[in-house]
Amino acid sequence: MAKNKNNQPIWNIRIKKKASTLFQKVGNSIDIDKRLYKEDIAGSIAHVEMLLKQKIISFKIKNKIIYGLQKIEREITKNKFEFNNEYEDIHINIEKKLFQIIGEDAGYIHTARSRNDQVITDFKIWIKSATKEINTNLDKVIKSTLKIAEKNIETIMPGFTHLKNAQPISLAHYFMAYVEMFKRDKKRFINNIESLNESPLGVAALTGTSFNIDRNYTAKKMGFSRPTNNSIDTVSDRDFVLDFLFSISVCSMHISRIAEELIIWNSDGFNLIHLSDKVVTGSSIMPQKKNPDLLEYLRGKTGTTFGNLFSMLTILKGLPLSYFKDMQDDKEIVFKSNDTLIDCLKIFNEILNNISPNKKKMYELADNGFITATDLADYLVKNHSMSFRKAYQKTAEIVNFAEKKKKKLRELKIEELQKIEPKLTNDVLKVFDLKNSVNSKKSYGGTSFENIKKMISKYKKKS
Ligand code: ARG
């Protein structure tokens, strides 16, 4: 009994003095990694089943251990488990409890494994299911984005470069740009799963083990496609953590970009969209205010996810092989980034369902800034066999003229246009029409209504 008295650290025979309260506090990760209990128990069950198959433990011990583990899982799920802060992490908490439930036979559970392989096994399983949850939320966002796009195929607005009017676009085309980004995000998350899908279990502390274990068996049991190849790399590797944090960063960056754009569009200067009262907040002093706080929250949270990615990169930089305590922080960082992203996706989805475009204002803004000048240049190339550069210069002259006369391009008379380019006929006037301009962009991926409709129905079928 002396070896595993429940109130003693596992290493109490070797290390005789108790750690200071402060050392315990900083070294302890149970408040964070208790979130891994299900994965830890699943990994332990796979492990002891393998130990039995390989005749390393007996049938009776395997059953006792699994009985104890399942009891622990039920207790934790029902919030009846008392986590002990004197035990560093989830692994030790569970092991200690197992001793309480089944007695000394619990001591067989740690045969041929170490917490070093145990923790990353748990963590990889956790990241796999977190990825699924993120992608389910991304699906919802994609669906809501498609819904807005579908309603706004014929809503014309200015497309901007440098935030200056560039060429007219369909609002749907703009939203569909974000569908592309969110689809890439999904793919990025899925690709990560492929590269992390190797089971660490059985590499033990860093060398592998002298027990005749079957790592293929445990890998399969836990849903990994194969075991990892090098025991030292396995316990040192946190690339899968970086991949996950990077994917979260990119996804939150996409959300931040659209949030910023919607903040601008919602500003009184632009007034291109209306946000319903469900997603705005008031001011404590200015009674008239309706502020887009939630969009600002989304933009701001990108700072957290980028920061977490950089924390992890910095922790790993210059770290020799193999396991070091430095790595313990990986869980807190990942959980924070994951939770932040999940919140952001949910909030963003709600915002998408609470936006309405101010179509009139969008059209009016698009009707400014000589936005169809490129259409005129294209027309000159197609109809008067000019090189594009020549047509570009002619058009610039026409824009200068319109600016001087304080007229829009569409307000110029054909006679005025002919003074600059005598070959022009009445036919040219149609190029100044915004709808005509949008619809002329029929090249694959362009903003014509027809293209957008096809894309929307293609994506609706897929999702
Ligand atoms: N709580 C530890 C962590 O998350 C588990 C691994 C401990 N390994 C060790 N050699 N101290 O990193």
Write the layout of secondary structure elements.
Elements: H1 21-27, H2 30-33, H3 37-53, H4 59-77, H5 90-102, H6 115-151, E1 156-161, E2 164-170, H7 171-196, E3 198-199, H8 215-221, E4 226-227, H9 231-236, H10 239-266, E5 273-275, H11 293-316, H12 330-352, E6 355-357, H13 359-366, H14 373-383, H15 388-404, H16 414-420, H17 434-439, H18 449-462
Parallel strand pairs: 3-4
Antiparallel strand pairs: 1-2, 5-6
Helix pairs in contact: 3-4, 3-6, 3-8, 4-5, 6-7, 6-12, 6-18, 7-10, 10-11, 10-12, 11-12, 14-15
The structure holds arginine.
Number of helices: 18
How does CATH name the architecture of the largest domain? Up-down Bundle
Stretches where pLDDT is under 50 for at least 5 consecutive residues are: none
Shape: elongated
Fraction in beta strands: under 5%
The CATH topology label of the largest domain is Fumarase C, Chain A, domain 2
The N- to C-terminal Cα distance equals 58 Å
Which range best describes the helical content: under 10%, 10-25%, 25-40%, 40-55%, 55-70% or over 70%? 55-70%
**Structural class designation:** mainly alpha
Report on this model:
The protein is mainly α and 463 residues long. It has 3 domains: 21-111, Fumarase/aspartase (N-terminal domain) (Fumarase C, Chain B, domain 1, Orthogonal Bundle); 116-202 and 235-362, Fumarase C, Chain A, domain 2 (Up-down Bundle); 365-462, Fumarase/aspartase (C-terminal domain) (Ribonucleotide Reductase Protein R1, domain 1). Helix content is 59%, strand content 5%. It contains 18 helices and 6 strands. The protein has helices at 21-27, 30-33, 37-53, 59-77, 90-102, 115-151, 171-196, 215-221, 231-236, 239-266, 293-316, 330-352, 359-366, 373-383, 388-404, 414-420, 434-439, 449-462; strands at 156-161, 164-170, 198-199, 226-227, 273-275, 355-357. The strands form 3 sheets. The chain has a two-stranded antiparallel ribbon with strand order 1-2. Strands 3-4 form a two-stranded parallel ribbon. A two-stranded antiparallel ribbon has the order 5-6. Strand 1 and strand 2 (164-170) form a beta hairpin. Helix 3 packs antiparallel against helix 4, helix 6 packs across helix 18 (449-462) and helix 10 runs parallel beside helix 12. The structure holds arginine. Arginine binds next to helix 6.
